[in-house]
Amino acid sequence: GNPAFRLWHEKLTDSASELISRIAATASSPADLADAEVELAPYLLDSFGNATRIDYGTGHETNFAAFLYCLARLGVITEPDYPAVVLRVFVAYLDLMRTLQDTYQLEPAGSHGVWGLDDYHFLPFIFGSAQLIDHKYMKPKSIHNPDILENFSKEYMYLACVAYVKKVKKGPFVEHSPMLDDISGVANWKKVNSGLLKMYKAEVLEKVPIMQHFLFGSLIKWY
Question: Per 3-state DSSP, what percentage of the chain is helix, strand, and coil (rounded to 5)?
Answer without folding.
Answer: 65, 0, 30
